[in-house]
Amino acid sequence: MASPDLTQELTCSICLEIFTHPVSLECGHHFCSSCISRSWQKVPGDVSCPQCRQVFTQRNVRPARTLSNVVEKFREVKVTQPQEEFYCQEHEEKLKLFCEDEHKAICVVCGMSRAHKTHSVIPIKEAAQIYRNKLEPSLETLQKQMDLSLHSKREREDGIFHMKAEVDRLRNEINSEFEKMHRFLFKKEELMKAELERKCNKIFEEMENNLTKTMNEMSSLEGAIRDLKSRLEVQLAPEFLKDIQELLMRSQMEFYKPGTVSTQLPVAIAGEPVKYIKVWREMRAVISPVTASQSCSLPVPTSLTLDTETANDGLIISQDLTSVRYRNEQQPRPDHPKRFDKNLDVLSSQSFTSGRHYWEVGLGNKPHWILGVCRESVNRKGNITESPENGFWVIARFPDCKSLKFLDVISQRKVKPRKLGIYLDYEGGQVSFYDAEDMSHLYTFTDTFTEKLYPIFNPCNNNSGNNSEPLTLLSG
User: Which of 274-283, 337-346, 420-429 has the lowest mean pLDDT?
Assistant: First the structure.
């Protein structure tokens, strides 16, 4: 009889049966050919070993001929081995009957005994077939459950793999972006220092020249004073009056003070705070996404303007197209297919079909507003429920109003944002909202975007004058 260890070694870990046409994977593990084919059938792309989880880019399997020969020998030995006989311990008779009441095999003597006289007793082979018929569907069900659990296991492992890959990508993105900023700032620092040295050297040169002139004047004065003192000590008149005209001229020497040079740095050098603002603006270009292929770049505020052709008649758009507010009476505007006729909405003139974008909206102290993005194809006529199902990804502020279906993530916050930041990652399928003052996260929608998206703005009605402030675009 084959040892249990050998039976275990020759068992497929997928179907838990003796190998049938065994094959070998690159990692060295063995499976039935049909089992590994079914396991990989619904897996797109790379596959993995069900036992050790090693990932393979190619679905290479090799027939395990040696193992196949061992399996065949094992099967032959099992078939030729005599069947083990089971006997009743009490009567030492073969177990040929099965008691359905007590669910156990019994001998003929047991079947004739008083203990089993009223029980349902059937031949043991018949009972074996009955229970085999019951267990075979259970095996199939359990095998399906095993397949589900293997699939679930792969999903969990794939999730971990993708999460780790995303963390690595973000780590590399952070390193790359900050390296850009570090290089840019270091270069600007060196340029500003060099410019400071150049401008200051000119001032120092002028100051040094003035100092040299002053020292030359002092030397001339010291010589004249020395000569006058020496002449005044002469007692003989002829000697005293020698070259008296030249001496008189030197005695009238005046000190010519050089032009004044301020000891304070000029405002152009020391008092120009705008130079740092210029650097900041230039740095924005370094980290700004230029094309969709540069999707790893960090977003900076996008310049937006409002599209008057989409504005509800009850809205007032500023002349520079950067603010919107509601007024009680409607203003006549030509009808347009793009115009919202009931909802107090207006879209931006700009739209997005790829990339990552960020813009900011000034809220002031408005108690009511709706902001976010929408699909180009949204319904613009009649009363619209602005929900993701209808193509709107918006949040709102409606304190103490339970009847509206807008997502209000603001009213419960202790500190209400005065500026809202909206971030769109088109390929990533995310629309996120932030308090633009401290960049604290408010909410994120996750979806799949397949068409053009527009920023959308709704200042809501005046609420008896309590909501008259406009929504203002602060981007760019």
Answer: 274-283
Under 8 Å between Cβ of 473 and 306:
yes
CA–CA dist 413, 411 (Å, integer)? 6
d(CA 298, CA 161): 24
DSSP 351-374: -BSSSEEEEEEE-TT-S-EEEEEE
Question: How far apart (Å, rounded) are the C-alpha atoms in residues 268 and 352?
Answer: 42
DSSP state letter for 293: G
Q: Are 312 and 341 in contact (CB under 8 A)?
A: yes
Write down the pTM of the prediction. 0.48
- Confidence label for 289 from pLDDT (cuts 50, 70 and 90): very low
Strand partners, 397: 369
CA gap 273, 267 in Å, rounded: 10
From 339, 346, 334, select the one nearest 305 (Cα to Cα). 346
53: left (phi over 0), alpha (psi -120 to 50) or beta: left
- 51-57: long-range pairs with CB below 8 Å, 24+: 51/13, 51/27, 52/27, 53/157, 54/25, 54/26, 54/27, 56/25, 56/26
Q: Which ranges in 233-335 belong to alpha helices (H)?
A: 237-240, 244-251, 267-270, 274-287
Secondary structure class of 347 (helix, strand, coil)? strand
Comparing C-alpha atoms, which of 10, 152, 132, 4 is closest to residue 71?
10
Residues in Cβ contact with 347 at an 8 Å cutoff, skipping those fewer than 6 apart: 306, 307, 310, 338, 374, 454, 455, 456, 457
CB atoms under 10 Å from CB of 467, counted, come to 19
Contact (Cβ atoms closer than 8 angstroms) between residue 107 and residue 88: yes
CB 95 within 8 A of CB 106: yes
> Measured between alpha carbons, how far is 333 from 2 in angstroms, rounded to an integer?
92
Alpha-carbon torsion 306, 310, 311, 317, what sign? positive
Q: Do the beta carbons of residue 97 and residue 120 sit within 8 Å?
A: no
**Cα–Cα distance for residue pair 11/291, rounded to 1 Å:** 56
User: 11 — alpha (psi -120 to 50), left (phi > 0) or beta?
Assistant: beta
Strands of the 104-107 sheet, one edge to the other: 104-107, 95-99, 121-123
CA distance 41 to 180: 45
Instruction: Name the token pair of 105.
Output: 């095999």
Average pLDDT over residues 283-311: 64
